[in-house]
Amino acid sequence: MTATLTPRRSTEELASSRPAWQKRITSDRAARFTFYVAAFALWLVLAGLFERIPGPPSVVDRLVEEFRRGEVFGNFADTFYRFGIGVALSIVVGILVGVLVGLSPMARAFLESPVMVALSIPAIMWAFLTVMWFGFGHTSPIVTTFLTAVPFMIVNVAQGVLGVSRDLRDMSSSYGVPLRRRVSDLVLPAVMGYVMAGIRFVVIMGWNGVLLAEWFGGSGGAGYRARYWYDANQFAGFAAWVVLFVGVIIILDQLIFERLSRRAFRWRDAAH
Amino acid sequence: MAVLTVNDLCKTFGAGTARANRVLDHITFDVRGQTFVSIVGPSGCGKSTLLNIISGVETHTSGEISVTSDAGKPARLGYVFQDPRLLPWRSVRRNMLYVQDADDEVTRRRVDTYLDMVGLGKHGDFFPGQLSGGMQQRVGIARAFAVEPDLLIMDEPFSHLDAITARGLRAQLQDIWAQSKKTVVFVTHDVVEAVELSDRIIVLQPGGRIFEDITIDLPRPRRQSDPAVATLQAEVLARLENMKAMTPQVAAAG
Ligand SMILES: Nc1ncnc2c1ncn2[C@@H]1O[C@H](COP(=O)(O)OP(=O)(O)O)[C@@H](O)[C@H]1O
Ligand SMILES: [Mg+2]
Fold this sequence. Notes:
The complex is a heterodimer of chains A (272) and B (254). By secondary structure, chain A is mainly α. Chain A has 14 helices and no strands. Chain B is of the alpha/beta class and 254 residues long. Chain B has helices spanning 47-55, 92-98, 105-117, 133-146, 163-180, 191-197, 227-246, 248-253; strands at 2-13, 21-32, 36-40, 62-67, 77-80, 151-155, 184-188, 200-205, 209-215. Chain B has a 6-stranded mixed β-sheet with strand order 5-6-7-3-8-9, with helices on both faces. In chain B, strand 8 (200-205) and strand 9 form a beta hairpin. The model of chain B is unreliable at 250-254 (pLDDT under 50). The A-B interface holds A 167-168, 170-175, 177, 181, 185-186, 189-190, 192, 267-268, 270-272 and B 55-57, 77-79, 81, 83, 85, 87-90, 94, 98-99, 127-130, 147. Residues 13, 21, 23, 41, 43-49 of chain B line the site of adenosine-5'-diphosphate (ADP). Adenosine-5'-diphosphate binds next to strand 2 and helix 1 of chain B.
């Protein structure tokens, strides 16, 4: 007796059996597009229902106005300066401390509690504290960005270091590979995935931190400008800046993060 | 001169606890330079533990162990493991250089020479994931030879490969060994493989004692098809059957 299998079709057959429009509406890009359309529709509905939610036309008006007055580039330049320093510090310090915590049980015991405490402190607390400590200027948003973001980097990297293959570590120690080379050729590449995840957190948490510190710090920047419109009771202006914040974070994530991880995982793509 | 000396070596896991497990029991042997010695025994008899003690990854409970190098330098050891143990994110050539003392012109040339010897001269820039299991294991072998070790230890390097690939690699290992004349300690549970490769076979029995020390005096290169090799393989197998008859644990373990 022969059993009949459901007919298996090759990928070529599958590809040619589906019309182009069907392929297009089931693509990833279509899904992403659907989300943006739905979000926009929801905004329209809410703006129609509630008077205090500004609709797209007034927000766009405001945006154009802010660009024309030259508020956008100046304020974002300040914000990016602070954000950039804070994020860079978080990444460097986070990798160093994370590797240390992952490799040394003593460092792990010592740093476990402070890192957990730091993780649980919301960005808004750091924003208040740093404004108290450092006053108005670049320092408080930079420090807030750093303190908000760095614990995420440490935790991710330490997690990755703890997961480095036992077999490869044994191989390295039986061959007597020096510590520096072990870190650069074994530990760092092995934790690359965790570093990437860490950087993503750092960017998102750091962005939160810098905007909050600017909101309370009164020293210019995108967060400060949003606060300005909020205080003036001008919700369209406020919403215009929210649109800008969201836009920037999406661009950062897509452009930088995607590109970085593709580079870092070249060996993985080459293998398959 | 002896390159490896093992004297009255004992290893007990969890010594002093209720679950103390004696794995190596007063082992004594030495390995002369430029010989190929196999350690054979059923799985679980302590072969890997012995190698780990030699390499320093594992500590021993009592006894002495020493590796002698020429010219008074610290002894250099090479390892081939059951699996290739390559860094997946480094090219084949970078993997070979990873365990080398230096990264100079001489070292690079040596690395390429050994890659050529295992037939992977054109694969230096490949990532391990782009090679088959047998090719990856050949990289592991080339890596071990390329450190020019005083002692090369191999722990069942062919047991994860299919029979045909394993046969090819055994032939290749014989060729490289004939050219380099390194001192090798080769662990396997496969008597047939041990006879084909070795000058001498040390048989471990369960409980970690040496059961027999057999000299294999056959001309090289040895090929599986040679009747003299097959005859000796059968003879050694018969002697190990004898061991099973004498040690009840083995009979029980099957
Ligand atoms: N790290 C360890 N802790 C406790 N027992 C171990 C450890 N490693 C090996 N053993 C035990 O030692 C015995 C010998 O193991 P092993 O040397 O791996 O045998 P083989 O390599 O001959 O198959 C086994 O019974 C195993 O359970
Ligand atoms: Mg073993």
